[in-house]
Structure formats: structure tokens, C-alpha cells
Amino acid sequence: MGELCVRSVLVTGANRGLGLGLVQHLLGLPKPPQWLFATCRDPKGQRAQELQNLASKHHNLVILPLEVANPTSIKAAAAKVGEHLGGSGLNLLINNAGIVKITLLENETLEDMTEIYTTNTVGPLLMGQAFLPLLKKAAQGSPGSGLSCSKAAIVNISSIGGSIASFSAWEMIQASSYRCSKAALNMLTKCQSLAYKEHGILCLALHPGWVQTDLGSSGGHTPPLTVDASVQGMLKVLSSLSEKETGTFLDWEGKILPW
Ligand code: NDP
């Protein structure tokens, strides 16, 4: 299995946690992307300090504002990415931004269900729509008929928590709004894979493992995986994907997960 080699990548929620880890590891690849778009809600703010430090050292890193629950913000980011790329397309879109609220089923509310669904499910839908022209352009510009992340791909960072068949860790954390949003994200991934296959775009739902981030630790337990281990695993998986895997649900080790 070779290293991931991809010309242009966009990561949402890139200022901390897994998003930041993905950016760090992509920059450290033997052949880093020529264009790496790290997007976050407040690129100039304190929460994006680490990204700003990285951008001062890596000229291929472009930080852009992007709020995934806001269609206007998404369209503006797509236009900016298009300007940077000139005539070429975007190869890899990683929909990573996500939120959780740790709540018992009886305490879920309309507001929480809506906010979490909007961020975790509608966000990736709108991202896929807005970036479709750039993804199509990337696919058209890549030789060969197969699918791959080097050519054109949408990777939705999902969660085993959204798996209906495994209902993982229910006794520890209920978070039904989060589980529903990720189950719906899995279905969205399948729909995207069916709709976008003819355009040469691979679509994958990817579970990063249970990882030591703010989100991963929010239930009050310490997750077993470091960001580095999860991201290394995920990038290895991405490097190996082909047509066979489009529309599937994999984890950071490349194992197929039950929907
Ligand atoms: P973190 O809480 O560490 O980071 C979440 C990121 O998402 C932050 O950059 C945050 O930005 C961003 N974000 C949240 N809402 C929005 C929004 N509306 N628009 C733009 N950005 C937003 O979480 P993780 O890194 O752990 O999670 C990354 C992904 O991995 C998520 O999709 C999560 O569901 C998934 N995942 C994580 C697991 C884990 O154990 N950590 C397990 C399974 C899945 P800001 O700083 O502005 O809030």
C-alpha cells in the first residue's frame, strides 16, 4: 500500500482535533498536496492559531473561512477554492467538521436534533453540491477509468455511533441526536456514491476510531486512540481506495463496518 498522493485537498473543521491532524499529516506526506485548503469558522481567531502557524511555514496551505451550516459561506468558499485552483479541479473533499451533544434520549430537543443534523448531515450534503463542479473537473482531468482519492473523492467522516447494526457503546453514551445524524450521513454517502459515480467521484463514509479530541472526550471517558494514530490509519485507507470501496462504510484500519 503506497502513500496517499493527491494534488488538491479540502478539509472542513481543520482548526483542531482530527481536522488539524489531517492537515498536519497531509503536509508531512512524502508528496504533499500542491493545494491544501484548511477551512474553519474563524481563520483569524485564537482557535485557528495552530493553522496560522502552519500556513506561515507551508505555502501550499490555504486557510479559508467556512461554516458548514451556512450555504452562503459554503458557496463563497467554493468560489475561493476555484480561484486558487485556476483551471484545475479539487481532487479530495474531506467533510470532517462535526458536533455532538451528550444527552439522554429523554432530554433530546427539537433544537439539538436540528442543530446536529444541520451540521453533521446537511453540511456534507451542501458541501458535495457546492464543490461538485470542481470535483467533476478533477475527475475529468485525471487519466484512467477507475475511482480513487487521487482522482476525485468525497470522504465523509462518520462514526460507528451511527451504525444501526452495531449500536456501539450505547451503555456509555446515548447521544441519540449525534447517532441519528451519522446514520443519515451514512445514507447520504451511499446516495452521493450512486449519483456521482458516473462523474468519476468516489464517495466514502469513514469512521476515525474513538479518538482523543474534544469531541471524543466529551462523554467523560478517555478515548484509546491518539489523533496521530487515527489520522495515519485514515490516510493509509484513503491511499488504497478504488472503485470497489465507493459507497461503503470503513474504519481507520480499512475494516468494513456494518451500516
Ligand atoms: P473536535 O470537537 O475536536 O473538532 C470539531 C471540528 O469541527 C472543529 O474544528 C470545529 O470548529 C468544527 N465545526 C463544528 N461545527 C462546525 C460548523 N458548523 N462549521 C464549521 N466547522 C465546524 O472533533 P473531532 O476532531 O473529534 O471530530 C471530527 C469528526 O470526526 C467529526 O465529524 C466527528 O463526528 C467524527 N468522529 C470523531 C470521533 C472521536 O472519537 N473523536 C469518533 C467518531 C467520529 P470550531 O473550533 O469552530 O468549533
UniProtKB/TrEMBL annotation:
GO CC term, one of those recorded: cytoplasm
Protein name as it appears in the record: C-factor-like isoform X3
Stored InterPro entries: Fungal_SecMetab_SDRs, NAD(P)-bd_dom_sf, SDR_fam
Family as reported in the entry's similarity comment: Belongs to the short-chain dehydrogenases/reductases (SDR) family.
GO molecular function terms attached to this record: oxidoreductase activity
Recorded coiled-coil stretches: none
A Pfam short name: adh_short
